Request: fold
Amino acid sequence: MPKIFEYLGILIFFYSNEHEPIHVHGKYDGFESKAEFYIVDGEIIEIKIKSIKDRQPLSGNKLKDFKVFLEKYADKIVQKWIDYFVYHKDIEFEKINTRIR
Reply:
């Protein structure tokens, strides 16, 4: 399970056997959601947050924090996904403790 970011306590990661579409999981205190990135001609056109079977989804302020993070870091997330799953590179974990505005 490659961990790629932690933002205000939300762990953002991939499972090692992921599949397309490009997506990440956000987990906080037993709650978990995933964000799928829809890309056309190299541009992210949409990010959809979805629930995961048998898991309670992120909600309230943590869901808002997750959405804000995704919007700000979408390009870096997609690049890390490509580096890990396409190029089989090691990826760097980043911890962010200050709120994104």
Summary: The chain has a mean pLDDT of 93. The first helix runs from residue 60 to 85. The longest strand covers residues 31-40.
